[in-house]
Amino acid sequence: xxxxxxxxxxxxxxxxxxxxxxxxxxxxxxxxxxxxxxxxxxxxxxxxxxxxxxxxxxxxxxxxxxxxxxxxxxxxxxxxxxxxxxxxxxxxxxxxxxxxxxxxxxxxxxxxxxxxxxxxxxxxxxxxxxxxxxxxxxxxxxxxxxxxxxxxxxxxxxxxxxxxxxxxxxxxxxxxxxxxxxxxxxxxxxxxxxxxxxxxxxxxxxxxxxxxxxxxxxxxxxxxxxxxxxxxxxxxxxxxxxxxxxxxxxxxxxxxxxxxxxxxxxxxxxxxxxxxxxxxxxxxxxxxxxxxxxxxxxxxxxxxxxxxxxxxxxxxxxxxxxxxxxxxxxxxxxxxxxxxxxxxxxxxxxxxxxxxxxxxxxxxxxxxxxxxxxxxxxxxxxxxxxxxxxxxxxxxxxxxxxxxxxxxxxxxxxxxxxxxxxxxxxxxxxxxxxxxxxxxxxxxxxxxxxxxxxxxxxxxxxxxxxxxxx
Amino acid sequence: xxxxxxxxxxxxxxxxxxxxxxxxxxxxxxxxxxxxxxxxxxxxxxxxxxxxxxxxxxxxxxxxxxxxxxxxxxxxxxxxxxxxxxxxxxxxxxxxxxxxxxxxxxxxxxxxxxxxxxxxxxxxxxxxxxxxxxxxxxxxxxxxxxxxxxxxxxxxxxxxxxxxxxxxxxxxxxxxxxxxxxxxxxxxxxxxxxxxxxxxxxxxxxxxxxxxxxxxxxxxxxxxxxxxxxxxxxxxxxxxxxxxxxxxxxxxxxxxxxxxxxxxxxxxxxxxxxxxxxxxxxxxxxxxxxxxxxxxxxxxxxxxxxxxxxxxxxxxxxxxxxxxxxxxxxxxxxxxxxxxxxxxxxxxxxxxxxxxxxxxxxxxxxxxxxxxxxxxxxxxxxxxxxxxxxxxxxxxxxxxxxxxxxxxxxxxxxxxxxxxxxxxxxxxxxxxxxxxxxxxxxxxxxxxxxxxxxxxxxxxxxxxxxxxxxxxxxxxxxxxxxxxxxxxxxxxxxxxxxxxxxxxxxxxxxxxxxxxxxxxxxxxxxxxxxxxxxxxxxxxxxxxxxxxxxxxxxxxxxxxxxxxxxxxxxxxxxxxxxxxxxxxxxxxxxxxxxxxxxxxxxxxxxxxxxxxxxxxxxxxxxxxxxxxxxxxxxxxxxxxxxxxxxxxxxxxxxxxxxxxxxxxxxxxxxxxxxxxxxxxxxxxxxxxxxxxxxxxxxxxxxxxxxxxxxxxxxxxxxxxxxxxxxxxxxxxxxxxxxxxxxxxxxxxxxxxxxxxxxxxxxxxxxxxx
Lengths: 470, 769
Description:
The complex is a heterodimer. Chain A is of the alpha+beta class.
């Protein structure tokens, strides 16, 4: 395993399933990266991963507690030590200090790294995007207002970039150390020496690991010593393309890839609003759609999204390939219609036509960076003022992600009026079996799903008389 | 002046417990916690764990050479469970192995057989069964019994307040390193180095002077590391002492959350009586504190609930009783506000309920009853009040009339969204309520090159205390801050420290530093006076220069120090400060426990999405009684952070134990603290600058805890927004106000004006059935 760690080329024979965070802190003794929660929920361990994508150097913020060391293979891994220009502070650090945006300081390196990631990103360099870049970082001291002010200052550093390569601009402006300017060439010469993908020993039955964002929360110890087949970096599993009227997504497409896809953005104009509710920037940078599907959480956001689109999966066991509708993947709680040798290669769905509306709703205890209490998506087609086709998915209200088929059957052929919607909500109640847990009581989840179904219609049919629905 | 730690923080070079370089041969510990909340240990099976690779030894209660006891206020808490377990997660064994991973893997192989006993999680149940940590305490003023008949309105109700996880981003931990002559150096992430030293001394059975406790800094404390850091330090010390090897244990987040106590949940009953002019004539409250399985700091927390049970109001007739109830939860502990916020929530709930019943704006009742200078608190201290000044300044400055009009218009115009407004006045007493703890020491050295080193008992945990202490020295000596360094906190340099807590750390340690610096300065001035043949009051120091009769002399700071050193004048001083004036009689429950009070008023606005039950807290506008702030940057940060932490407690932070006493909100995925998108768009803070003399350092009033209580207003702003949608919504006084509670209230069918009881139907902890 080889990669560039800050300004050094490193190689290691340590188990590739080890969390990158432990490698950084306890093997490289780079202690600026902090251990906070070990589940990608606080951002104290944020690092940057630089990668060549079709010759373009792209940096992403990752939470290193959830990153298998194997996913660093062939990349440029940057820790806080890698952006230091001591004894002077770099302008990002200076902005944090000037705005008093650090108190106990334990979360601070994570915030600085996320902001450094923002400086290396190609998004419009405004304050809103700077704050979005730190949406995965939790601070318990400041109340964030001072950090917001610092983020605004950092955005201001980039106003003159005008499309220049971010890494070049950042070094030229002395925002980041000089060596960043040479990373692209170093990665180019590193990659051919890697002998392709990191492969598990041939006589083993490897585990599949995509982004690792749930595996490393649920079973970090179990996975460390196992042979692993890493899927995140595989080019064959990447990409979002349009084939006729179908949209085809590679299994290792991340949530962020979806967000940045021009196809997805064109067909789902509110995509940004939906996906902002899904985890946080670093987790969206790592989490794959196939990982979300096979994790089989009854409340997986992307599963709920693609269920309403009636997505079809392609599975492979290395020998043969088969297709399976996503709705048929789930046999029971965490039980999949899939063998342990099979992995998802890609999925596709029919792009919605002009008369089809789509909406995604999610409510959680905390609006952002949280797991839903209930989530739901709808795809609804209207012909001659009547519902000609409809799918409503619902998460958190049963042992598997659900498609509300009875509710859909009831609605089909009817006009979307308030009385009909209320009746549909009553039918939905018969299709669900929510349980009480930390995300809410069963009573709440029942009421909430009804409210989200109403929210779908209120969003898609603005002429509805909302007071009749409340 | 910016926080002096910013540079190392932003570059990742600050050193926290887990960053202390590890010595060769260091072993790693992991605690095995009880899997059930109450029972008798029948058998502890360690064989399989002992055979795991790299395991060195597993310690149990039988290995403790001293007393198996770490209780601070009451000796009721074993370090390692011996026969009984009293809470889920209570340490039973301590595995020590050659690697972190091996220690954790071995913990999973430990088996235990426990005869389970009934589990109590509800403080009311504990109280009814006589399970009390200490006898109940009652604060009384006037005569409530004979006042009810004079009241035009008497309203009763009850309240359930949930706890709060500290969620310091740095978990607890310790690292014990054997030294020569049977002593240990203990690095600990603690707010109370002396408490750690005392606990370790007791466990090992050796005098305190053998144990040096060092704190570099904390990655957050908030009270959670005041007494509860003792356990991990004692475990590491026990192992290091017996194995003669360094032993380290930095907790995994899930261990930390499961094994440590939190802010106390409270249940409470209230009865409030008003006359026709909305003056509160009488108030009675009964508080049932959920202390958890051992005393920890609960008795002190309970006292502060009573001290703050009338918040910023004057009520002539008060009777408040508090029970500290023993349950089978991890021992609950200090958390910013220390019982005060719970007391304040109850009086605010009583006022809100009265306002609902009387159909008036709660703000009218609040304002009419604010305490004035000379009026008496239930515990006998008379107020030097800024309550009305803060309130009125906030009303004018933030144009409250306009804000109310805008909200009314918004609510009339919108069906799906409603706004609510709430005022939250605060009054918080500064000092440890245990009078003897109000003292501190500071050791100041001036080195012969003119540089200054300062050690105090204060622990830097982000509150900026080191910066403030540095300012004290820089100002006293009139030298640039670069000449001064704050050392880490060590029990070998400063002894018998009170914990960094009670918002009093900067006051106490700042005053001690001022005393030490002044003593050295006096010697230096005498020297200069002698040299220049003037009297000492003709000598001053300014910007590193010695002035004679306000005119520069040819001596600068360096020359002064060089001369003093050559003349063998002591350039060191150990300053001691004990807060004057304070006293308290715990039998009469009367006295003057606080050096001063901090006041303030916040106005909070919230918007509820009436379709989804979600909400935003939009603005918080504050007038805060700073006294005369000595560092506005740091104080603003404390206020913003405190407000957001308070809002989190009131809205999304939900501690969930199941009925077996097992923590269900046991990770950051299930326990949500505010993120950057959930904080108010606007937090406006305006100082009520006063020059009135007080006992604060440089008249700069303490700022650590009070702002948290502004966050209580978020609950009431949401309450008011819900009632704008559904005027008779059933909104039980239960915290936190999660989106679930909001949605259920928005669509509730009952009428709350019938004064129904909620405790029977809704659990106090958000129990996950």
